[in-house]
Amino acid sequence: RRLILIGPPGSGKGTQSPIIKDEYCLCHLATGDMLRAAVAAKTPLGLRAKEAMDKGELVSDDLVVGIIDEAMKKPSCQKGFILDGFPRTVIQAEKLDQMLEKQGTKIDKVLNFAIDDAILEERITGRWIHPSSGRSYHSKFAPPKVPGIDDVTGEPLIHREDDTPAVLKSRLEAFHKQTEPVINYYTKKGIVSNLHAEKTPEEIREEIAKALK
Ligand code: AP5
Ligand code: ZN
């Protein structure tokens, strides 16, 4: 299976990804996680991406397409993958189609995490992440056993630098302007399933299971 998860910041893509990944044995490719790792490691790519990310703007298409092209070559991604946070522009979607065409494959399903903007600020400002695994928590909706500590490794959790109300505003603008057209792009191909992303994680998980039947 080759899946795309699309939705605004805080809609639950990163929360559902590990569940889908384990259930269907897919590889999880999250451009946001990969970019944050590059920023933390201060690689040339990270240095180029940081400015846009800090402002809540999209990083250039060439840069993220390059990352995905490289990542999809991994042997573990040959049987199928979940793309989380990519493609985010119509140009990225077209480039992805070209890449897959070369391999004789295509996207099977796009899961659209549909949700009202008003719900997202509370989700974003309460989020904690475990940086090396990408695991996320929420101070109210999904608290770790010990505040500020990862359940699995016991390591400290952090807040993402772009998880502020001001940066969220630009991330939402980028979503509506540049990423919503991507949903239309795949709707025309008839492969979009719309989820009720305001529901609980368990309910969304069931909706995903139905969509992937
Ligand atoms: P990225 O990391 O992709 O961020 P995003 O799209 O803004 O999405 P988030 O990670 O904020 O949301 P999510 O849907 O994963 O939410 P989560 O499940 O964690 O991108 C960051 C930046 O990188 C971009 O701004 C851009 O600069 C750059 N970038 C990345 N990809 C790019 C691309 N393709 N092109 C160009 N630039 C790119 O949930 C959020 C919180 O809510 C958590 O605390 C969680 O516990 C809680 N929660 C989750 N589900 C529920 C629920 N059902 N009920 C209650 N709480 C819930
Ligand atoms: Zn995410």
TrEMBL record:
<protein>
    <recommendedName>
        <fullName>adenylate kinase</fullName>
        <ecNumber>2.7.4.3</ecNumber>
    </recommendedName>
</protein>
<dbReference type="InterPro" id="IPR033690">
    <property type="entry name" value="Adenylat_kinase_CS"/>
</dbReference>
<keyword id="KW-0547">Nucleotide-binding</keyword>
<keyword id="KW-0808">Transferase</keyword>
<dbReference type="InterPro" id="IPR027417">
    <property type="entry name" value="P-loop_NTPase"/>
</dbReference>
<feature type="domain" description="Adenylate kinase active site lid">
    <location>
        <begin position="127"/>
        <end position="162"/>
    </location>
</feature>
<dbReference type="GO" id="GO:0004017">
    <property type="term" value="F:AMP kinase activity"/>
</dbReference>
<comment type="function">
    <text>Catalyzes the reversible transfer of the terminal phosphate group between ATP and AMP. Plays an important role in cellular energy homeostasis and in adenine nucleotide metabolism.</text>
</comment>
<dbReference type="Pfam" id="PF00406">
    <property type="entry name" value="ADK"/>
</dbReference>
<dbReference type="GO" id="GO:0005524">
    <property type="term" value="F:ATP binding"/>
</dbReference>
<dbReference type="Pfam" id="PF05191">
    <property type="entry name" value="ADK_lid"/>
</dbReference>
<dbReference type="InterPro" id="IPR006259">
    <property type="entry name" value="Adenyl_kin_sub"/>
</dbReference>
<dbReference type="InterPro" id="IPR007862">
    <property type="entry name" value="Adenylate_kinase_lid-dom"/>
</dbReference>
<comment type="similarity">
    <text>Belongs to the adenylate kinase family.</text>
</comment>
<keyword id="KW-0418">Kinase</keyword>
<dbReference type="InterPro" id="IPR000850">
    <property type="entry name" value="Adenylat/UMP-CMP_kin"/>
</dbReference>
